[in-house]
Fold:
Amino acid sequence: MSLRLAQCLRRPVRQLVAIACLGLLSAAQAGELKLATTTSTENSGLLKYLLPRFEKKAGVTVKVIAVGSGKAMKMGEMGDVDVLLVHARKMEDAFIAAGYGVNRRDVMYNDFIVVGPASDPAGVKGGKDVLAGFRKLAGSGSKFISRGDNSGTDVMEKDYWKQLGIEPKGQPWYINAGLGMGEVLTMAAQMPAYTLSDRATYGAYRAKTGLAIAIEGDPKMFNPYGIIAVNPAKHPGINHADAMKLVEWITSKEGQDAIGGYKVEGEQLFFPDYKAK
Structure:
């Protein structure tokens, strides 16, 4: 029994007040689990499908904060969230190495694709080499929208340009949006323009944007997701117990089967990837 609870119950109060005191303390201790995650897991509809299953089983309420992977990890560094679900492996490894995260596990994967107007003004449709496609996009002068938000998608896109030795920043055809994936896909449809997208968010937005896949199938476009609990040694006040409940559930057979079962218009958007070590 906690000291606070013992003090509460020792007071000369009626039994009903003591019961109320117990209820208040239980509510204060219950709290909620704060999950910082990439916009793709929310925009795709995956979290609305997964989290109610976890909440019902674990008796935990999850508050979702959907931002770019870089910002999600910054929130983890500050102790503003309890657990991360992100897709930027190099940044994830650095986050762990710096002692901010523990118990990272692979969760799932899909892939990146380049999408754009169905008319394909840059002539890149059908390509399977992302670097050749990016070079052609730059040479065509067709508009390209960058996430520009330090998300996993943004980091991957910047790496493609770096490998090509091309600096797109400041070019008239290059637009730095600073927005989430769903918003960027909407912009690309309106302009029209090309953009790099994770396949899941594109699948959820395909019907309302009319954008077409231009480049896909390159191994360089592999897109893995990982879950990381924020290190309680760095931030003792976080909800580590419930964070680990989510880590365990999402990598359990039940969680992995749920990921594999999520589909939009009959298409599977994420593929389970946890392998026990």
User: Anything to note?
Assistant: The first strand starts at residue 33 and ends at 38.
